[in-house]
Design brief:
453 residues, Growth Hormone, Chain: A, 3 domains, 0% strand, transmembrane, MFS_dom, transmembrane transporter activity, MFS_trans_sf
């Protein structure tokens, strides 16, 4: 029993830092922006490349656990995460930092599915497995909450580099315990390797697409490069689609996307990812640039809402699922997201009214995300056979992170085209991100008669 508890702790620590690393960066971004003398549109690439590489390689990370071994992939991914955390912290240039963040996303794509696979294979009794997965998931919620609070405090008093350095001692301990206590892999050597080429093509497409979107305002100056990238995207997309249709074991089984629920769940999850990370990015700029709060004070302001998110996930969401359909909870969640964006926009218009900002944070990070994500995931996998629901859930998570990366790039494009060059954020970027949430809400309302249960 002690060995199992250690394994659960090791796996939960991994998911904790995966979630922490996305959240913790947001309040440190303005400090990075100052050091590297970059505008708000450029600094967002530190987050964009992480989530795009994470999303692009997540499915292949899960499949490698089955072919190479969950322990091997976990140790490799955690080691890479450790190395890239050190590299990001010691980076002297923005290009170095962005490169290490991209590799960190690749590492997270290996750690996340292998950690979950380790838990499901260690805890085989159903009640014990469900309890372990619940604990594992709660560490993700705690990681996001701590990231929003700790990011500002650590960056203010120790420097932004330490948001990466704090990973090092804990991940080192996790690696030692994982090597010691996790069972050796038993791998079927005759099983073919998964389609790594398609995973690389998918990541290449979404990264290049984000780059093209981001640099559209300067098209006349860089048209040759951008057109070359567009041709590459089209070619990669053609090859990717052909491979998925012809290979016996495709990266993403396109036949899964047949039901209205699966298409709706995944599509709106893309919009959710685009909205949520863009919201956090703008919120950090509003609190620090507009309202002149230190990163530490901004973190303390957000911390209670992180606790609220945990309690909503733990107690409110299960109660909602008992009383409402999956579709109804999704509508409620997207409604909260849209309300949060409109409240943030109103607070900026009314001279940064603090009660409106607090209500906005409560709607989005305090409750909306906790309601949205599980309901959309449930919607995406409910029509999928039980034997393929793990793969379908992984595809849904991939949809979220791809949406997050593309959303940040679209936000950057809008800020370049529609806002003046200034350090402060006006209401227009917030209005832009509301158009990520609005189509999702409308879509759910339109399909509610077709998905009635």
């Amino acid at each position: 029993m002690r060995r199992k508890q250690i394994i659960l702790l090791v796996a939960s620590t991994a998911i904790f830092f995966e979630a922490l690393d996305i959240a913790i960066l947001n309040l440190a971004i303005p400090l990075m922006q100052q050091q590297f003398h970059l505008d708000a549109e450029t600094i967002q690439w530190v987050q964009t490349v992480y989530v795009l590489f994470y999303g692009g390689f997540l499915v292949i990370g899960g499949k490698l656990c089955d072919t190479i071994g969950r322990k091997t992939i976990f140790l490799a991914g955690a080691s890479l995460f450790l190395f890239t955390s050190l590299g990001a912290g010691f980076s002297n240039t923005f290009i170095q930092l962005t490169a290490f963040r991209a590799l960190q996303g690749l590492a997270a794509a290996m750690v996340m599915p292998s950690a979950l696979s380790i838990i499901t294979n260690t805890f085989t009794e159903p009640a014990e497995r469900n309890r372990s997965i619940s604990i594992f998931s709660s560490f993700a919620a705690i990681g996001s909450g701590c990231g929003l609070a700790l990011g500002g405090i650590v960056a203010t008093y120790l420097g932004w580099q330490w948001i990466f350095f704090i990973n090092v001692p804990v991940i080192t301990a996790a690696l030692i315990l994982a090597y010691r206590y996790i069972d050796k892999d038993v791998v079927n050597k005759q099983q073919p390797l998964p389609d790594i080429v398609s995973s690389i093509l998918l990541t290449l497409m979404i990264v290049l697409l984000s780059y093209v979107v981001h640099h559209l305002p300067g098209f006349s100056k860089n048209y040759r490069l951008l057109l070359s990238f567009v041709i590459l995207i089209i070619a990669a997309g053609f090859i990717f689609k052909r491979r998925e249709r012809t290979l016996q074991q495709p990266l993403i089984d396109l036949t899964l996307f047949r039901s209205t629920g699966t298409i709706t769940g995944n599509s709106i999850t893309v919009l959710l990812g685009a909205f949520f990370l863009s919201y956090l990015f703008l919120l950090s700029l509003v609190l620090q640039h507009n309202m002149h709060l230190s990163a530490a004070n901004a973190g303390l302001l957000l911390f209670p809402f992180s606790l609220l998110s945990f309690f909503v996930s733990r107690y409110a969401v299960p109660a909602l699922f008992k009383k409402m359909t999956v579709l109804q909870t999704g509508i409620m969640g997207m409604g909260l997201m849209l309300s949060g964006a409109l409240l943030l926009m109103a607070s900026i218009i009314f001279n940064h009214n603090l009660p409106l900002i607090l209500l906005s944070i409560a709607c989005v990070t305090g409750s909306g995300m906790s309601v949205c994500y599980p309901s959309l995931t449930a919607l995406a996998i409910r029509d999928i056979p039980l034997t393929q629901q793990g793969v379908a859930a992984g595809i849904c998570t991939t949809s979220y992170f791809i949406g997050a990366g593309l959303g940040l790039s679209l936000l950057s494009l809008g800020m370049q085209l529609l806002t003046a060059a200034t350090d402060t954020v006006n209401h227009i970027p917030v209005l832009l991100i509301s158009f990520f949430a609005l189509p999702g809400l409308v879509w759910l309302l339109l399909v509610r008669k077709r998905i009635s249960h």
